[in-house]
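Structure (tokenized):
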């Protein structure tokens, strides 16, 4: 029985580097920073459409298409 008591006592005294709530604050700050980076890069491709215009016709699937969606049938309304 003394071995089990010694193991339990040793496990209960394991110190942490800092208080447990500080780990949560650090994680929250990291997620907030990553969220800001994600927010900053939203819609980047559409900010400079003049750079993509020459390649749009080359990458369009339908003959004569100059933008995404050209040459595709629209929704049918009956």
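Design, position by position:
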């Amino acid at each position: 029985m003394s071995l089990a008591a010694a193991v339990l006592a040793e496990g209960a005294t394991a110190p942490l580097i800092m208080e447990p709530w500080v780990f949560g604050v650090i994680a929250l700050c990291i997620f907030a920073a990553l969220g800001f980076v994600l927010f900053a890069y939203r819609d980047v491709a559409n900010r400079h459409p003049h750079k993509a215009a020459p390649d749009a016709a080359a990458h369009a699937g339908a003959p004569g298409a100059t933008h995404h969606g050209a040459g595709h049938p629209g929704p049918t309304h009956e």
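Reviewer-requested clarification: Helices lie at 2-12, 20-40, 49-59. The chain has a mean pLDDT of 75.
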